[in-house]
Model the fold of this input.
Amino acid sequence: MDLATYQLKTFRHVAGTHSLTRSARNLGYSQSTVTAHIRSLETKLGVELFERLPHGVELTSAGRAFQGYVDRILAIVDEMAEEMSGMSRADGNVLGRMQLGTVSVLADYHVGALVRMGLQRHPRLQISPRTLSSAELRSAVASGDVDAGLVVLPNADEVTRSKDTGIVSARLLPIRFVPVVGTRNSQHAGTEVKPAGSSRTLRILVADRNCPSQRILPDFFRASRDIDCEIIETGSVESTREAVRSGLGIAMLPAVALARETPDSGLATPANLPRSDLAVAMIQVRRDRPSPAVGSLADLARQLVTYEQKGASVGLQARRRVPYLPR
Done:
């Protein structure tokens, strides 16, 4: 009987959530794909696995019996993968490949340094970074498209879990975000920057609109200044920084991105806009035996001393401050 592992994982997820729609969202599939996985299993087994209800699904008696086998099969598959990964250690080096997902606000600086450290420590481990939006990354981890993901969390919780997706996240290191404005454009020149024209609207540039770090400025202006924000998504920290420099708008960027800027670079950090200390976290599917490759990379990330921690990337904050907007 030819049963695909991905179909078994879909079955396990639907059995846990009691919802085809929620499983599709968490796994990053369309609902029709999840339905097709379940129907294919039912056809091969010759039994109905779920009873379709008005507000979800429930396991049939055959489905409950099948669930026990699926749990055992997937546990053996996970155990096999971890055992083979553990046996691939040689002279302290982790062997193999791993797909590392990352959000765009971390891709340009932190991930590059982490991958370099990983290759230096484990030259026979192939790490393939993949940049995804915050919304896409959790689905990619849940579905197994990537082995682990680096995200930005709004809090310093050491470990958090999601009951729906079975994803566990562990805090790795702090990360500071600072507001940035351009100083060479007419709208962003001098010592004060105002909304464009006569409207009370500001243009805010974001690398990833769903990342907690990128919601800080829009939330601040709407809550404390009653100013509407036009959000433009740029896709990366580098493109955001250059767009700010050209005067297209303002942004909240990692402090490390500004560490080498000089006072005459055309960028400044306003003194009266919020700064925020968030956390870089690694997310992965919860397992009894974590992957050695993922665990090793997490350990390296905790050892990664960023510019923020050295005090070097206060960046423009220590060199040039400008007031921002009418108080």
Summary: Residues 202 and 229 are 5 Å apart (CA to CA).
